[in-house]
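Why does residue order matter? Because the sequence determines the fold. Keep that principle in mind as you read this record.
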Amino acid sequence: QVHLVESGGGLVQPGGSLRLSCAASGSTFSINAIGWYRQAAGKERELVASIEYGEGGAAKYADFVKGRFTISSNNAKNTVNLQMNNLKPEDTAVYYCNYHMSYGIDYWGKGTLVTVSA
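Structure:
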């Protein structure tokens, strides 16, 4: 069992920045990849960014955040961050941390709300 807690969400003006963090506890063995997803009101959950677990793991980004968001992980501390720059109103959503385990199970946090508005 893995327990994930997101933090760092809030209200920010367009063009601003936020840094989301996800802290993991529990049985954090056999992690395959870590990701950030988001779900806007009335829309399906979508992948924002992911990173392979392990030293130098490759990161992937959704086209709509490339060049603006950066995912990073500290495996020793079981944390993963999402640095979000140049935020746009369309980035408004609940952001979720996801741990995908090598044995096929996904763990999710409860999410943190990001609101981008003037």
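The chain is about 0% helix and 55% strand.
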